[in-house]
Amino acid sequence: MKRGKFIVIEGTDGSGKATQTKFLAEQLKKLGVPFELADFPQYGKPSAYFAEKYLCGEYGTAEEVGPYRGSLFYAVDRYDKSFDIRRSLAEGKTVISNRYVSANMGHQAGKIKNQKEREKFLKWLIELEYGIFDIPKPDLTILLYVPPEIGQKFVDQKGERPYTKGKKRDIHEADLSHLKGAAAAYLTVARKQKWTIIHYVRKNGNILSIEEVSRLIWERVGKLLQLPHAGSEN
Q1: 11: part of which helix (H) or strand (E)?
Q2: Residue 80 to residue 98: CA distance in whole angstroms
Q3: Residue 162 forms part of a structural domain
Q4: What is the largest CA-CA distance in the chain?
Q5: Do the domain assignments include residue 210?
Q6: Whole-model pTM?
Q7: Which of 28, 71, 96, 219 could make a disulfide contact with 231, Cβ separation 3.0–4.6 Å?
Q8: Measured distance CA(150)–CA(124) in Å, rounded
């Protein structure tokens, strides 16, 4: 059986990753394409225990925890899910993941200002996740990019999330300086790794609608999966 394709929807905070993942799944369902979903962190599961405590600020600020320790929390969670992902791919299914290793590349690498130290960290991270934990590599990563100031406002429009324990924002979302660092790191890594980048804000200042972003994602995914209706539906 032909191996399925692994697609990651990544993005800066407030970029609508969950919404776009849902829309993409609906498109595949309409066309009868077999697929499975993954969502990180896996809130409520044992493997995400430390990631949840970290995001609630129980270990201190994002800067105090640092990029290396912070990355470990998420890497263990992905390792836990990797067996399901690998199985689905072997069955020929398309796997759509809301966040993946790319999230560590943005949020954790963004804590490091020195370029050489950041490159050192990214090399370590790739070996950790794809080498030591040996998790599957994506066939396509799409980065949804929203400027931090706008993204933070979008975050405030979200409903209540159990892992934040009543707080409107987690420690990443509440720290605009962290969001700016992560956003810059996302763009740098995305260009180097040749991810697809979708900018929500156009050069004229207009913001793309949810439907426009969905269409752009669908065009790219359709080409990867060689679907006959790619780009013709929303």
Answers
A1: strand 6-11
A2: 15
A3: yes
A4: 50
A5: yes
A6: 0.87
A7: 219
A8: 31
